[in-house]
């Protein structure tokens, strides 16, 4: 018996008269293709029909899996660092708009009015008399 993968011989086995043969090998997802076998009983070689095997599973290449994992991890860290940098930039920009470079509020002197010392701010108190005392 001969065993084929995409018309390439994988191996061969001998079998006793009237018996069958088996061929063990490891399959990975990338081996999904056409398999077949052939037999020679001394009267001629007979080939089986092609059988399509679809193998579903993760890729066999562990290096690829590790590379993909490391890449995803690095991209995540890069994304977090970029987000942190943007947040810091906008906070710094916002804070610099509130305060001038001297650390004082950034309004103009015209906008600021000191409260008048002569105005009466407490409506419960009567206005002060202008120089004369009243008697009852």
From TrEMBL:
GO terms for cellular component: plasma membrane. Its main location: membrane. The keyword Lipoprotein does not apply. Residues 93-136 are annotated as: Disordered. It is found in: Cell membrane. It comes from the Eukaryota. The keyword Translocase does not apply. The chain crosses the membrane at residues 70-90. Keywords: Cell membrane, Disulfide bond, Glycoprotein, Immunoglobulin domain, Membrane, Receptor, Signal, Transmembrane, Transmembrane helix. This is Fc receptor-like 3. It comes from Bubalus bubalis (Domestic water buffalo). The lineage of its organism: Eukaryota, Metazoa, Chordata, Craniata, Vertebrata.
